[in-house]
Amino acid sequence: QVQLVESGGGLVQAGRSLTLSCTASGSIGSIVAMGWYRQAPGKERELVASINNSGSTNYADSVKGRFTISRDNAKNTVYLQMNSLKPEDTAVYYCNSLTKNWNRYWGQGTQVTVSS
């Protein structure tokens, strides 16, 4: 099992930046990829960005050029640097991990609110 703890959410004005952190514990060696998802009120959960063990990244079109996902293997932590935030980025952001046997684990979520 993998446990994920997110931090870094909050209220920010449009155009500003925010960084989310997600620290993993438990069966760290089984993780093959980690990512960030978000869910806005009344909408489905969507992938924001992901990074695999090779360092390859993937981004939703809506955040390309504004968000950057990175990882610190020594700290078992994944970061999401969010720049030029927009009101439509407002959502609960969830950290996710995918393991070698295709299990997915989720963090508790952290609220990001962008005011106009």
Protein described:
This protein is mainly β and 116 residues long. 0% of the residues lie in helices and 59% in strands. The protein has no helices and 11 strands. The chain has strands spanning 2-7, 10-13, 18-26, 31-39, 46-52, 57-59, 67-72, 77-82, 91-99, 104-106, 110-115. The strands form 2 sheets. Strands 2, 4, 5, 6, 9, 10 and 11 form a 7-stranded mixed β-sheet that branches. Strands 1-3-8-7 form a 4-stranded antiparallel β-sheet, with no helix packed on it. A hairpin with a 4-residue loop joins β5 (46-52) and β6. The N and C termini lie far apart (40 Å).
Layout of helices and strands:
Blueprint: E1 2-7, E2 10-13, E3 18-26, E4 31-39, E5 46-52, E6 57-59, E7 67-72, E8 77-82, E9 91-99, E10 104-106, E11 110-115
Parallel strand pairs: 2-11
Antiparallel strand pairs: 1-3, 3-8, 4-5, 4-9, 5-6, 7-8, 9-10, 9-11
